[in-house]
Here is the input.
Amino acid sequence: MPVRLRKFIGTILIIVLVLVYALVANTVAVATLGNVPWWGHLLYFLLTGLLWVLPAMLLIKWMAGPRQQ
Here is the structure.
């Protein structure tokens, strides 16, 4: 697959990933964090705010293509 097409597909997938992840993370927060103290909210949003980076890193690695030797 050409690198240009790979980057285009990866960009679309990252946008979809971020949108879906944000919706799911906020839906879970609204459903479960109603009676949790402020520090629980802080920990949850800190964790979920950083957790999306892992799948995004895999997508970016895939977008770069195979290693050149």
